[in-house]
Specification:
- By secondary structure, the chain is an alpha/beta fold.
- The chain has two domains: 76 residues, no CATH class; 269 residues, Vaccinia Virus protein VP39 (Rossmann fold).
- It has 16 helices and nine strands.
- Strand 6, helix 11 and strand 7 form a beta-alpha-beta unit.
- Helix 2 crosses helix 16, helix 8 crosses helix 9 and helix 11 packs across helix 13.
């Protein structure tokens, strides 16, 4: 009974009512939900949803209310875990090259069919730019073009894409701006489909960790949605590598999710089910890694756009489930796990707990400002 009272009171403080009528209220189906939340925090919340212990009509708004209610400050079920993680955080590097190869495969090699149905036709798996866009396709093309303009691309330039995915940005840059591209990824499935999508274009895919890659410098370097896999102990090494790969008069654009505070351990549910060893960097962590390596030309945040992007992905996912589910027969919780991932993240961006940063960096200061329009 105590657990029920505690959880009910906390949720009420976030304007959430157990078995209430609002679309963000949760309907509890199993009373084990209450003790699970108090014992396991965010991990328990996600797993209880996957198990069907509670339902919610608007899960994204439920998460939004939780985060805006600052419940973590009022009751932190993960204090002990956090304290122990902080104490031993410098004893090992979880984002080693071998771990990264396993972690990237864990998420990105689960099947190209899923991503084909969930994403836009260009298969851009990062935040879209919705400023003047009417739908996901327009918003993703607007984001790709915004990056091209910030990089000031010209025909014949060479470009390195660190964490290139299926080659969506490289294909756009090659088609629209005449750029010669090299992409790094640790996903064999991405390389397989990427080569098909980018055939007959000056684009090369390389299976390599950024720390292992060696080459002559490039005119431009870009990294879109990959920095979240790097880890705090590697931020400095990452920036030094990008610096080495960039020509003296080049531009490096880093596109990454950003958090409110330093983190060494990340969200437990996300790391267990979606992105193992994933870490969201803070402004301080990025700034420290940049200091003494790059000059910061521009830093733009359009985090709320990821809310709309994730909701569009979830709509595609739900509408296409009949074409996706055959690939995951026997994986009992896959559908609920994936929708929890998409909707919970949408709620987090809506609550402004997370941002999306595009950071333009150079070895020497530019005379001409970075283009934003």
């Amino acid at each position: 009974m105590d657990a029920i009272n505690v959880v009910t009171r906390l949720l009420n403080e976030a304007n959430i009512e157990i078995n209430g009528d609002n679309p963000w209220d949760i309907q509890v189906r199993d009373e084990r939900f209450y003790s699970r939340i108090l014992a396991d925090g965010s991990l328990g919340l996600g797993e209880a949803y996957m198990e069907g212990w509670y339902d919610c009509k608007n899960l994204d708004q439920f998460i939004f209310n939780l985060l805006r209610g600052n419940l973590e400050e009022k009751y932190n079920a993960e204090v002990l875990v956090t304290t122990m993680a902080e104490k031993f955080k410098h004893l090992f590097n979880p984002q080693t090259i071998n771990n990264c190869k396993k972690d990237i495969s864990f998420h990105y090699d689960i099947g190209n069919n899923l991503f084909k149905h969930m994403l836009d036709p260009r298969m851009v798996y990062s935040c879209a730019y919705w400023k003047d866009a009417q739908d996901l396709n327009e918003a993703q093309e607007a984001k790709l073009d915004l990056i091209c303009r910030k990089l000031d691309l010209k025909p014949g330039m060479t470009l390195l894409d660190i964490g290139c995915g299926w080659g969506s940005f490289m294909k756009y840059a090659a088609e629209k701006y005449g750029v010669i591209c090299t992409g790094l990824t640790l996903s064999k499935e991405q390389i397989k489909l990427g080569k098909e999508n980018c055939k007959d274009l000056p684009i090369e895919f390389i299976y390599s960790d950024y720390r292992e890659f060696e080459s002559d410098p490039f005119d431009r370097v870009v990294s879109i949605g990959m920095f979240e896999h790097v880890g705090p102990l590697n931020y400095g090494v990452y920036m030094q590598k990008a610096h080495k790969m960039l020509k003296e008069d080049g531009i490096f654009l880093l596109h990454t999710i950003g958090g409110l505070s330093d983190s060494e351990h990340g969200d437990k549910w996300i790391r267990k089910y979606i992105f193992p060893h994933g870490i969201i960097p803070s402004i301080q962590q990025v700034g420290t890694a940049i200091a003494g390596t790059f000059y910061m030309e521009d830093w733009e945040d359009f985090g709320p756009d990821y809310d709309k992007t994730l909701m569009a992905w979830n709509e595609n996912f739900q509408n296409s489930w009949k074409d996706i589910e055959k690939d995951y027969e026997g994986q009992k919780y896959f559908k609920k796990m994936w929708e929890y991932y998409l909707l919970a993240c949408a709620g987090a961006f809506r609550a402004r707990d997370l941002g999306v940063w595009q950071i333009a960096l150079t070895k020497k200061r530019l005379v001409k400002p970075i283009c934003r329009v």
